């Protein structure tokens, strides 16, 4: 069954909106999660006991770094075309997948708590007890999943999405009016030059679309 071109265009636009939303939200979730507490415990050593915590960035800086890479790739998707867009979309998807893996690996990490305990107590021979982990690593993994979804959508529909530079590529376009055909960027006498306000008003008077 042949698919209606208008249906394909609508699906592409929906995919574009979802990809932008997923990519931006995913990067934000990962970056926010990195600043939250991932692990808690009690440091014991030298006859003293103190509570210690470890943030996501202390556990691993990889999710945040990959979120920034993914966010940059999300923007770069619209700056390139063809094979370049496929490559950038792949980077976006891989950034999401990597963020998921790093977050899951850090969900049960205790090394960051041990480092924090040694720093707080001021001695190397310290034990960490009553260790518990929060749900923030899983939120970070969810953000990575959103980035992955944005990358997969870009891979599936990216070739149909517009590029940021397309609206500025006017050199080869011709404008037709009552006085004949001229190249975009040329004045009425055929001389190349920028669009001046008076040119725009004259085009409107002739019934042309100056854009």
UniProtKB/TrEMBL annotation:
Chain intervals with Basic and acidic residues compositional bias: 168-177, 193-211
InterPro entries: Trp_biosyn_TM_oprn/chp, Trp_synth-assoc_CHP
Keyword Transmembrane helix: yes
Highest taxon of the lineage: Bacteria
Key words, A-Z: Membrane, Transmembrane, Transmembrane helix
Chain ranges passing through the membrane: 58-79, 86-105, 138-157
Protein name, UniProt field: TIGR02234 family membrane protein
Biological classification of the source: Bacteria, Bacillati, Actinomycetota, Actinomycetes, Kitasatosporales
């Amino acid at each position: 069954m042949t698919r209606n071109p208008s249906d394909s265009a609508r699906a592409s636009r929906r995919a574009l909106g979802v990809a932008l939303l997923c990519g931006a939200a995913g990067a934000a979730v990962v970056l926010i999660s990195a600043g939250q507490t991932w692990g808690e415990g009690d440091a014991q050593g030298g006859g003293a006991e103190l509570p210690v915590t470890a943030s996501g960035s202390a556990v691993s800086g990889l999710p945040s770094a990959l979120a920034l890479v993914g966010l940059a790739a999300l923007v770069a998707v619209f700056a390139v075309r063809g094979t370049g867009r496929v490559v950038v979309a792949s980077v976006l998807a891989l950034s999401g997948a990597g963020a998921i893996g790093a977050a899951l690996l850090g969900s049960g990490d205790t090394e960051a708590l041990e480092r924090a305990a040694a720093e707080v107590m001021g001695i190397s021979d310290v034990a960490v007890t009553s260790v518990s982990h929060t749900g923030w690593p899983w939120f970070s993994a969810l953000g990575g999943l959103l980035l992955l979804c944005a990358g997969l959508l870009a891979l599936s529909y990216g070739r149909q999405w517009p590029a940021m530079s397309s609206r500025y590529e006017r050199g080869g376009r011709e404008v037709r009016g009552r006085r004949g055909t001229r190249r975009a960027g040329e004045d009425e006498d055929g001389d190349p030059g920028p669009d001046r306000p008076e040119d725009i008003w004259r085009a409107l008077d002739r019934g042309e679309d100056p854009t």
